[in-house]
């Protein structure tokens, strides 16, 4: 799944994201249906998952932006980098 998300093509990304969302919904609904969790438990888990995913995505984007700026700036004099 991670390799598909890291690929440059958009179709595998959309397919994997849709599959992941479908699995999350089905598992959450099954937990409530089987009576092992309350609806608020499932909603809280989904909210936590969304928050975590947003945080990781923001951190990855910041890292990629910083790396692009460093490459665009080129080597800095006196750093010993080629």
TrEMBL record:
Q: Which InterPro entries match?
A: PAP2/HPO (IPR000326), PAP2/HPO_sf (IPR036938)
Q: Which Pfam families match?
A: PAP2
Q: Which residues form the Phosphatidic acid phosphatase type 2/haloperoxidase domain?
A: 4-61
Q: Transmembrane segments in this chain: where?
A: 14-36, 42-60
* Domain of life, source organism: Bacteria
Keywords noted in UniProt: Membrane, Transmembrane, Transmembrane helix
Protein name as annotated: Phosphatidic acid phosphatase type 2/haloperoxidase domain-containing protein
């Amino acid at each position: 799944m991670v390799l598909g998300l890291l690929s440059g093509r958009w179709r595998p990304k959309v397919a994997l994201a849709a599959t992941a969302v479908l699995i999350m919904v089905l598992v959450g609904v099954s937990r409530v249906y089987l009576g092992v969790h309350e609806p608020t438990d499932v909603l809280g888990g989904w909210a936590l998952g969304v928050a975590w995913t947003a945080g990781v995505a923001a951190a990855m984007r910041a890292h990629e932006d910083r790396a692009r700026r460093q490459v665009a700036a080129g080597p800095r004099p006196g750093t010993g980098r080629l």
